[in-house]
Recover the amino acids of this structure.
């Protein structure tokens, strides 16, 4: 087994709007990354098992980088991710007021792309492309 660190040529990034409450940041991040895991199978690693043989679900095979940004930078990042056609998920402010998956999808569907009140996006792709998407954001403290 190699002890060399693994360097990925891809990146998973979550970009959150800077004015979210702590509970909102955690909630939005969890929702956003769940979208990537369901549609981009290569981001998922192998299942885990402890020394007693108890199995655990697989998780992402690489770190998730979490950034924050102003509303304007988030809007720009959204345009960049769309122009690059990278796998993405989004969370809008309207989703804080809904209580189920059906209403979540309806809330997003009701708003034109350029008018979405984004509070977070997640993106997966080649490292350099994702870096360009999140340009202007900073690492979440």
């Amino acid at each position: 087994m190699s002890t060399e660190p693994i360097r990925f040529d891809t990146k998973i990034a979550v970009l959150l709007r800077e004015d979210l409450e702590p509970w909102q940041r955690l909630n939005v991040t969890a929702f956003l990354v769940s979208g990537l895991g369901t549609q981009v199978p290569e981001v998922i690693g192998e299942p885990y098992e402890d020394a007693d043989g108890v199995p655990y679900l697989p998780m992402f095979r690489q770190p998730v980088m979490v950034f924050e940004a102003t509303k304007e930078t988030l809007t720009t990042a959204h345009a960049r991710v769309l122009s690059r056609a990278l796998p993405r998920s989004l969370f809008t402010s309207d989703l804080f007021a809904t209580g189920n998956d059906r209403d979540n999808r309806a809330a997003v569907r009701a708003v034109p792309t350029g008018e979405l009140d984004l509070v977070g996006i997640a993106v997966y792709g080649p490292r350099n492309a994702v870096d360009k998407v999140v340009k202007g954001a900073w690492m979440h403290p």
In short: The CA atoms of residues 21 and 34 lie 20 Å apart.
